[in-house]
Amino acid sequence: MIPRTDATRSRLDLAHRIVGIYAENSDLVAAGCCGSVARGTADDQSDLDLYLFWKRPQRDAFETAPTESIGGRRFIFTGIDENGDGLEQIFVEDTKVDIAHELLSSQDELTREVVQRHEISVEGFKNLAAMSELVPLRGDSEIKRLRDQALAYPEALAEQALQAFLHFPPLALLEMCRERRDAVGFADVLLRICAQSIACVAALNRRYFHPEAEQKGALDVLERCSAKPPRLGDTLQELLRDPDANRVAELRADLLELIAAVERAHPSVPTDRVRWLLDFRFDGSGGLSTEQVRSRLDVEPKA
User: Fold this and answer.
1) Hey, what's the torsion of the CAs at 286, 189, 130, 49, to 10 degrees?
2) How confident is the model at residue 301 (pLDDT cuts 50, 70, 90)?
3) Which CATH class is domain 6-152?
């Protein structure tokens, strides 16, 4: 039912072959795949992302790559640490495969940290983004349990995430970099706005995305969210393609629409500072004192 592309189908077949090799070890509890293969959208360039969950740490089990038997060429192996975590990266023919090894008990604890204790971290959000889309390859009931736990994204976590992520660099920085023809500076500011805005949209939609994580696939996350400013993705992509495009005013309108959506859904999340920053100009403080400007920009006074 999942395959929608030939690349997805071939990678799922490969996933079953790989998991079958590791399943010869009776300590394997469950296994699943995530990413574009789990979503059915893989293409010929897509990696295959696998999670293997174990009863106990496999400290010495993988010194020789188990996938050599199917022609796998391992190029990275972190080893298995005392917590049972490790990463293998291999090529099977032309497909890159990432195999994450985790203790099932460690996964449960990480899920509790995020979902129950509302801890915001790059590692936790990246992990639960994967858990929320796991497709079972072994131990179907355990994979379903892990996926259901991740999908139980509570309102309190969304509010915590929005408080952490709802801040953008002043849009005046984009204008300044463009006027100075500082393409690198422009890209840096725009990518920060892109990461922060997508993280906020994800939180509104109960999805896991951290702005400090790897940004590959960020616009795909935005595309899969239903509650969002409808033009935000197009505006960001147009600015990324062409810094000279006169789109900063449109970006401001999109961000204001996003802020309004946060205010409606989570009225306790403060938005005064981020609204002020959108219109901050470097040619004047708008009547604010030096101390007020510093506090809103998070600038420390010089000693």
Assistant:
1) 180
2) very low
3) alpha beta
